[in-house]
Write a structure and sequence with these properties.
The chain has helices spanning 11-35, 41-64, 74-97, 100-107, 110-122, 128-145, 157-172, 182-198, 201-204, 213-236, 239-242, 248-261, 267-294. The protein has 296 residues and is mainly alpha-helical.
Length: 296
């Protein structure tokens, strides 16, 4: 058997994978923002999943073999797929209404919702410091959204729905348990996404223009590659070190928003995003430290 490599074995490579992964995801988001002018979010998700599914299945078979195709949690995977479709629809719709960086910053509130929901849904004890970090993070959300001000847009609530949906996905992953491999979970989240979004296509389907097909393929390719790189980054690098680099996604979003749409985030978006990111990094650091204490 090959030697077991610790998750702390390649911190530099782990960081590089995470930065490259969020770059790929931002490219996918930028393509979705562009295509959102002509197509409904649910159609973008269906085609993204349908194109990505053969790639993901081949990757899972290559790395895990046939055992990775088996699951005993089909209902849980379908639930998570439906949550994925709902949250991604919120995000893709929000991209058509908001600057790319603002939508991305709001989606980073997902770890805050995980903290807020862990107690009522999982009955887990949450440290006071995490509650405080989540409260500060939600203050950052309010700064970005600006409720009650002349700058308030109802569309700003859509990425917040995305963050809530992603948080529920993270929490429902606990229902699967550690016996099922990461490869199996990755495969069935795509399968469930295709199944859940296919049912709504008769009401939203628009025949894609030939010139848009490369962009559809790009969404599928870059989203799959991005998630794969992120997974690899967290596998080979210590979580407490690589997790903060997930927020490079905001830098890529600012860059792409300026390059393609000449979007410049407002000062309150920068301020709120900094608070959200700081809270998320603190929560990730606390979780990693707690895991280290429990390790033998």
């Amino acid at each position: 058997m090959p030697p077991d490599r610790s998750s702390t074995g390649h911190p530099g490579r782990g960081i590089a994978c995470v930065i490259a992964g969020v770059l790929c995801l931002t490219i996918s988001d930028a393509l979705a923002k562009w295509l959102g002018t002509w197509y409904a979010a649910i159609q973008l998700l269906f085609l993204r999943g349908a194109i990505a599914l053969p790639l993901v299945a081949a990757l899972v078979l290559w790395l895990g073999g046939r055992p990775a195709l088996r699951t005993q949690h089909a209902k849980v995977h379908l639930l998570r797929g439906a949550l994925n479709v709902l949250s991604a629809c919120c995000f893709y719709t929000g991209l058509t209404l908001l600057p790319l960086a603002q939508a991305t910053a709001m989606a980073f509130a997902a770890p805050l919702f995980v903290v807020a929901l862990s107690r009522p849904l999982l009955k887990e004890r949450v440290q006071a410091s995490r509650w405080l970090a989540a409260a500060v993070g939600f203050l950052g959300v309010l700064i970005v959204v600006q409720p009650g001000s002349v700058d308030f847009q109802a569309g700003a609530l859509l990425p917040l729905g995305t963050a809530l949906g992603y948080a529920l996905m993270m929490i429902t992953a606990r229902l699967i348990g550690p016996a099922e491999s990461m490869l199996t979970t990755m495969l069935y989240i795509v399968v469930a996404q295709v199944v859940a979004s296919a049912a709504l296509q008769p009401w939203f389907w628009v025949t894609p223009a030939v010139g848009h097909l490369p962009a559809f393929a790009g969404i599928a390719l870059f989203s799959t590659l991005g998630l794969t790189l992120l997974t690899q980054g967290f596998r080979i690098g210590p979580a407490s070190l690589v997790a903060p680099f997930d927020y490079f996604g905001l830098l890529w979003a600012v860059l792409f928003g300026w390059l393609f749409w000449r979007e410049l985030p407002s000062p309150h978006t920068y301020a709120g995003a900094a608070i959200i990111i700081g809270s998320g990094v603190f929560i990730a650091w606390q979780a990693a430290r707690g895991s280290a204490r429990r390790a033998p």
